[in-house]
């Protein structure tokens, strides 16, 4: 490399400077010498080497004591390069007739330390010009330059907005530079989370290079421009009994710590932190809620609907009625939204609402009226009706001869609630073959059955008794030798009607046949009487007494 047309050696601070003597060694060389030139041009000799005696001598120059080395080819080496080594050095080869000189320029470079942003501001306020920090880089040679960056882009100076001052200080003992660049800046809200850094540009032996600092993010303070109110709830809807937490927030930095909350029905705002809690809310808490900054400069609002569900069942609880009575039942709903209502009887969902114009035993049971708001999680109400249908014992007795012709079965059909207790008594000879057997008690009905083998006519009495009344019914039963068949056991009402219809038909046929026989007898009697009259006329006309007697005998036989 050449500097001003001269040979230049670039050296790194602290390394060894090597300067070859760029002259050809002439014949008759006596010795070689190195010198450097002072700023005023006066020479200072530092090294000598004889070509004949091969000895090396170093001049007493304090700056180069123990640092020099001169080789046989007259190459000069200087250890531990310093900034003060930046001089013009000259190699001299001397003969008896001539002195040859060749200058070399030495340049020394020192890489600066990584820049640091020091004296950082604790926070930045918008719309204010303030010191952001100082970018410091040390021990550079030659001096470098410092540039500020925001989010990777160069910050150019702008009057009253971006103010940059660069200061360079030289260490007199080392000659190294320390550069300090201060940045004054007017931040905006958008500078929150912005990354600021600085870069030092310096020159090295191989050219221009840069070193970047670590990025720094500053806490940017800016005023609140908007207030927001929120309802913090575990679900999207609010129902009676829930707790409500209102949260008010401002978009400033730092965020406001106190607010005014405005509750429906209260004229003045309630001063609180950023949250306001209401517990066990009722339906009258429905309304518009607001919050604002303490100076009332900004406000936001939200509407809260507290859902409710009321259910009124009439009658409810345990109700006792008599069979055949009417019982009106109503389930009334009052709710914040349309509710779904359904009925359950004895754990089975009903298709229609219960209605009782004439209570029957099968109407008894546990009724539940239940309602829900589908849109509100967990909002459900139910009430119960335990219906008891009471009735005095009612008895109907039937009998039949068993197929073996050896016994008869007598059945006592009983209705009533509470369940009646049944007793049997027998009047007359005969014995009860087995104990009474009862069918299952369902819907207030059951049967008690006994089997007997009476030797003569007997009377059986069935006694049914509950808390309401004692009922007694008797039935005459013929001796076992006389078959008896009553209505079949366990028949239903439809079968009873069919049997009754069949009985009526049979009776009608029998009566019809009897009437027909009677008419035929009358006709026959008139015919015989007419025949007798004719016979009498023949007797008179013929005068035949014997024939007349025969006719009378024949008529007598016919009449008989």
TrEMBL record:
<keyword id="KW-1064">Adaptive immunity</keyword>
<dbReference type="Pfam" id="PF13895">
    <property type="entry name" value="Ig_2"/>
</dbReference>
<keyword id="KW-0325">Glycoprotein</keyword>
<dbReference type="Pfam" id="PF08205">
    <property type="entry name" value="C2-set_2"/>
</dbReference>
<keyword id="KW-0391">Immunity</keyword>
<dbReference type="GO" id="GO:0030424">
    <property type="term" value="C:axon"/>
</dbReference>
<dbReference type="Pfam" id="PF13927">
    <property type="entry name" value="Ig_3"/>
</dbReference>
<dbReference type="InterPro" id="IPR013162">
    <property type="entry name" value="CD80_C2-set"/>
</dbReference>
<keyword id="KW-1133">Transmembrane helix</keyword>
<feature type="domain" description="Ig-like">
    <location>
        <begin position="223"/>
        <end position="305"/>
    </location>
</feature>
<keyword id="KW-0472">Membrane</keyword>
<protein>
    <recommendedName>
        <fullName>CD166 antigen</fullName>
    </recommendedName>
</protein>
<keyword id="KW-0812">Transmembrane</keyword>
<dbReference type="InterPro" id="IPR007110">
    <property type="entry name" value="Ig-like_dom"/>
</dbReference>
<feature type="domain" description="Ig-like">
    <location>
        <begin position="324"/>
        <end position="386"/>
    </location>
</feature>
<feature type="domain" description="Ig-like">
    <location>
        <begin position="103"/>
        <end position="212"/>
    </location>
</feature>
<keyword id="KW-0677">Repeat</keyword>
<dbReference type="InterPro" id="IPR051116">
    <property type="entry name" value="Surface_Rcpt/Adhesion_Mol"/>
</dbReference>
<dbReference type="InterPro" id="IPR013106">
    <property type="entry name" value="Ig_V-set"/>
</dbReference>
<dbReference type="InterPro" id="IPR013783">
    <property type="entry name" value="Ig-like_fold"/>
</dbReference>
<keyword id="KW-0130">Cell adhesion</keyword>
<dbReference type="InterPro" id="IPR003599">
    <property type="entry name" value="Ig_sub"/>
</dbReference>
<feature type="transmembrane region" description="Helical">
    <location>
        <begin position="505"/>
        <end position="527"/>
    </location>
</feature>
<keyword id="KW-1015">Disulfide bond</keyword>
<dbReference type="InterPro" id="IPR036179">
    <property type="entry name" value="Ig-like_dom_sf"/>
</dbReference>
<feature type="domain" description="Ig-like">
    <location>
        <begin position="393"/>
        <end position="473"/>
    </location>
</feature>
<dbReference type="GO" id="GO:0007155">
    <property type="term" value="P:cell adhesion"/>
</dbReference>
<dbReference type="GO" id="GO:0030425">
    <property type="term" value="C:dendrite"/>
</dbReference>
<keyword id="KW-0393">Immunoglobulin domain</keyword>
<dbReference type="GO" id="GO:0005886">
    <property type="term" value="C:plasma membrane"/>
</dbReference>
<keyword id="KW-1003">Cell membrane</keyword>
<dbReference type="GO" id="GO:0002250">
    <property type="term" value="P:adaptive immune response"/>
</dbReference>
<keyword id="KW-0966">Cell projection</keyword>
């Amino acid at each position: 490399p050449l500097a001003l047309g001269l040979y230049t050696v670039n050296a790194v601070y602290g390394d060894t400077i090597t300067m070859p003597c760029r002259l050809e060694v002439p014949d008759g060389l006596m010795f070689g010498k190195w010198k450097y030139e002072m700023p005023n041009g006066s020479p200072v000799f530092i090294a000598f080497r004889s070509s004949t005696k091969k000895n090396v001598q170093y001049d007493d120059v304090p700056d180069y004591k123990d640092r020099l080395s001169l080789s046989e080819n007259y190459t000069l080496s200087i250890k531990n390069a310093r900034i003060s080594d930046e001089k013009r050095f000259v190699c001299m080869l001397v003969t008896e007739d001539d002195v040859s000189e060749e200058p070399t320029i030495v340049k020394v470079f020192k890489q600066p330390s990584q820049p640091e942003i020091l004296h950082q501001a604790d926070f930045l306020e918008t719309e204010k010009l303030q010191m952001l920090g100082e970018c410091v880089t040390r021990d550079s040679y030659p001096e470098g330059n410092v540039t500020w960056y925001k989010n990777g882009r160069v910050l150019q100076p702008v009057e009253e907005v971006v103010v940059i001052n660069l200061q360079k200080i030289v260490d007199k003992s080392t000659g190294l530079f320390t550069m300090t660049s201060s940045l004054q800046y007017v931040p905006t809200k958008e500078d929150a989370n912005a990354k600021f850094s600085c870069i030092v540009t310096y020159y090295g032996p191989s050219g221009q290079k840069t070193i970047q600092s670590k990025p720094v993010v500053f806490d940017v303070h800016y005023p609140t421009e908007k207030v927001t109110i929120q309802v913090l709830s575990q679900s999207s809807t609010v129902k009676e009994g829930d707790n409500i937490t209102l949260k008010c927030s401002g978009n400033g930095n730092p965020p406001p710590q106190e607010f005014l909350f405005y509750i429906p029905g209260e004229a003045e705002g309630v001063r609180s932190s950023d949250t306001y809690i209401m517990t066990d809310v009722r339906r009258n808490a429905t309304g518009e809620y607001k919050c604002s900054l303490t100076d009332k400069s900004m406000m936001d609002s939200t509407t809260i609907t507290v859902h409710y569900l009321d259910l009124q069942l009439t009658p409810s609880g345990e109700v006792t009625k008599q069979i055949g009575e009417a019982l009106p039942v109503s389930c009334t709903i009052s709710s914040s939204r349309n509710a779904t209502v359904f009925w359950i009887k004895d754990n089975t969902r009903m298709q229609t609402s219960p209605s009782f114009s004439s209570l029957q035993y099968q109407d008894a049971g546990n009724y539940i009226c239940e309602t829900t708001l589908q849109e509100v999680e967990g909002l459900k109400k139910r009430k119960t009706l335990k219906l008891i249908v009471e009735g005095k014992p009612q008895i109907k007795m039937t009998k039949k001869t068993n197929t073996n012709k050896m016994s008869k079965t007598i059945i006592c059909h009983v209705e009533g609630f509470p369940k009646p207790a049944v007793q049997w008594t027998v009047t007359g000879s005969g014995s009860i073959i087995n104990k009474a057997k009862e069918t299952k008690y369902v819907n207030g009905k059951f049967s008690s059955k006994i089997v007997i083998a009476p030797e003569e006519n007997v009377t059986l009495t069935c006694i049914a008794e509950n808390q309401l009344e004692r009922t007694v019914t008797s039935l005459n039963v013929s001796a076992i030798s006389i078959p008896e068949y009553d209505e079949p056991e366990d028949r239903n009402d439809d079968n009873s009607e069919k049997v009754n219809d069949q009985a009526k038909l049979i009776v009608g046929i029998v009566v019809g046949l009897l009437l027909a026989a009677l008419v035929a007898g009358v006709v026959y009697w008139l015919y015989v009487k007419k025949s007798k009259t004719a016979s009498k006329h023949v007797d008179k006309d013929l005068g035949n007494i014997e024939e007349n007697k025969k006719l009378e005998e024949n008529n007598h036989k016919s009449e008989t």
